[in-house]
Amino acid sequence: MMAQFPILIVFLENAGRVAGVDLPRWASQLLDWSTEEYGKLAVRLQARRHYSQIVFLEDEKATARHLLHALMDADDAVIDVLMLVHGQAGYACGCGDHRVTADFFAALRQLQAAGLAGFRLRAVYQMNCYGQTLGEEWLSVGAQAVNGALGVNWLPEPSLSVFLHGWLGGRPFGDAVERSNRAASRLLGQVWRGQGSPHPKIASSQMLVFGDKELRSR
Fold it and tell me: First vs last Cα of the chain: how many Å apart?
């Protein structure tokens, strides 16, 4: 039986980057700080009543090694993960040159096979670009449900806030992801207008769901 209050791990690193834009150093630093602070605030406001603990892995702690340790330190707890980072096909970006790659998942599978990992991974919400390339990897380490962007994800918000509201409010994971993606697409679609079909940025940001779409947080 699942614990009433799971643990939430938030892997958070913006690094002051915008796809296709070369920002000056001061602007990059400001973007890095402001987006991470906003992300923490958005998560705390909606999630604090639903989890026994919220673990933020940011800045120098946003690495595969720290993520692995955070999972292992959870003992036999139920865990949800938020990946609020950049990404490319096959990996999620952490701090500096650190990445969450296939090696991370392979190491975790080895620990699980040896009976050394007692945590129970429930849902993984990914904001990283090309998150769909990691969908099967997350399922391979026990995630019951995970989402991932088809390509470059241009819709971080209001996607995150709408997803948390739906998921923590009791909606199925797949429905919460779909509603959040639809709300963000509708809003940003007023800026990026397609010609008879979704704008390429909207289409690229489409979210796919892997695993149990009917999974609920409560």
Answer: 12
The domains of the chain are located at 7-150
- Residue owning tokens 């995150």: 160
Is residue 158 reached through a cis peptide bond, with omega within 30 degrees of 0 on the bond before it? yes
CA distance 192 to 112: 44
**7/169 Cα distance (integer angstroms):** 17
d(CA 86, CA 128): 5
CB atoms within 10 A of CB 99: 19
Structure tokens at 113: 């096979």
* pLDDT tens digits, 161-213: 999 999 999 999 999 999 999 999 998 888 887 677 889 999 999 999 999 99
Structure tokens belonging to residue 5: 């209050």
* DSSP reduced 3-state for 96: coil
50 within 8 A of 80, measured Cβ to Cβ: no
Give the global pTM: 0.90
Contacts (Cβ under 8 Å, ≥6 apart) of 169: none
* Model pLDDT for residues 90-139, shown as the tens digit of each residue: 999 999 999 999 999 999 999 999 999 999 999 999 999 999 999 999 99
- Spatial strand order of the sheet with 207-211 comes to 53-58, 7-13, 78-85, 120-126, 145-149, 207-211
Token pair for 86: 């950049």
Q: What is the DSSP letter of 134?
A: G
CATH architecture of the domain 7-150 equals 3-Layer(aba) Sandwich (3.40)
